[in-house]
Write a structure and sequence with these properties.
Low-confidence stretches: 1-32, 117-148, 242-253
Distance between the termini: 41 Å
Number of domains: 2
Structural class: alpha+beta
Strand content: 5-15%
Radius of gyration: 20 Å
Order of helices and strands: HEEEEHEEHHHHEHEEEEEHH
Strand order of the largest sheet: 1-2-12-9
Length: 334
């Protein structure tokens, strides 16, 4: 397949995913029922593969678009203090030792997307997502204790629940760039997928419903989640104060969760970015312009803490994302 044909296929898949994301039922969406297309388009860059470009002039401080996640999960430290579905912070009186929701809508939507699985005879079987309540099955406990660094496996588990329930297709993340996994990690994945299958079996999920859950599927999803998951940190300060939001997103001490998006994952990196992604009250990602952006200019975000020195940025970007940054700031070794 030619490069142009591959790009055309990816562009068509992106368009379908973007439309699906806009129409995906969500009780916490801040977008209008029929939002206008954002002033951006996806194209090929000279050296970084796909990128996001301005389709018109964008003013500093402008909200470019809002994105809903394909999959998200609260961090274990925030499990009882944020909504289990939209990650909105709960009032202190509502926090408990079991998972909670900020609204009836979020609770109902969670049942549709991942908390319950509809069997072929239309009965509803609850699925233990976290492995934390007192009725946890032994397989789920083993799965939880067998993981080292739970945030990514928990996202994979929730994604599997969404596939089983029919909320998303099993290939929904295929458009995203995967991480190159080491042989040790691949070996560990084989154990993880076996434990995950046992967890579903204990929840009375049939083999036909789990047909997609192969070692290849698990490895592919995990590889894409590891390199594309965003750390959700709620910005502190007035929404209008863009600089406060950007600084708060970097300086926050603890994340409330992690999420994977389609369009935000296509933004390339720059140590001096022209756009920033912030989270104000829930898992919806808001992409805002940090300065004026001309039509045709590529929009870039910073994957790391931009205040670090040159050597630290280069090391973290290579170890975490597999590339050496050649942005103007790094070329000058600023």
């Amino acid at each position: 397949m030619s490069r142009l044909a591959r790009y055309s296929s990816s562009a068509l898949q992106l368009r379908k995913l973007y439309i699906a994301t806009l129409s995906f039922p969500s009780s916490f969406s801040t977008t209008a029922p029929h939002p206008s297309p954002p002033p951006i388009h996806v194209g090929l860059t000279e050296c970084a593969g796909r990128g996001v470009f301005a389709s018109r002039r964008i003013s500093a401080g402008e909200l470019i678009h809002t994105a809903q996640p394909i999959v998200s999960h609260p961090s274990l430290s925030s499990l009882h203090t944020v909504c289990y579905f939209c990650l909105r912070k709960l009032p202190s009186l509502q926090a408990s030792q079991t998972v909670s929701f900020c609204s009836t809508q979020c609770e109902q939507q969670s049942k549709v997307t991942f908390l319950t699985i509809h069997s072929s005879i239309h009965t509803v079987q609850p699925v233990n997502i976290t492995g934390w309540n007192k009725n946890t099955s032994s397989a789920s406990i083993v799965w939880k204790e067998g993981m080292q660094g739970l945030k990514y496996p928990l996202l994979v588990k929730r994604m599997a629940c969404q596939v089983i329930s029919g909320a998303v297709s099993s290939d929904v993340l295929d458009i995203l760039q995967p991480e190159i996994s080491s042989s040790d990690r691949i070996s560990k994945m084989k154990k993880e997928v076996a434990l995950l299958k046992n967890t579903f079996v204990d929840s009375d999920i049939g083999s036909e419903q789990m047909a997609f859950l192969t070692e290849e599927w698990y490895a592919g999803v995990l590889a894409r989640i590891r390199i594309n998951a965003f750390r959700i940190e709620f910005a502190v300060g007035p929404y209008e104060d863009l600089l406060s939001l950007a600084a708060a997103s970097v300086e926050a001490e603890a994340a409330v969760g992690n999420a994977v998006y389609v369009l935000p994952s296509l933004y390339n990196h720059d140590c001096d970015p022209n756009v920033n992604i912030v989270w104000v009250e829930n898992v919806d990602a808001k992409v805002k312009a940090l300065r004026d952006i001309e039509e045709g200019e590529e929009l870039r975000i910073c994957y790391i803490d931009a205040s670090m020195d040159y050597k630290a940025r280069q090391r973290i970007l290579y170890e975490g994302f597999g590339f050496h940054c050649n942005c103007p700031r790094c070329v000058s070794k600023d």
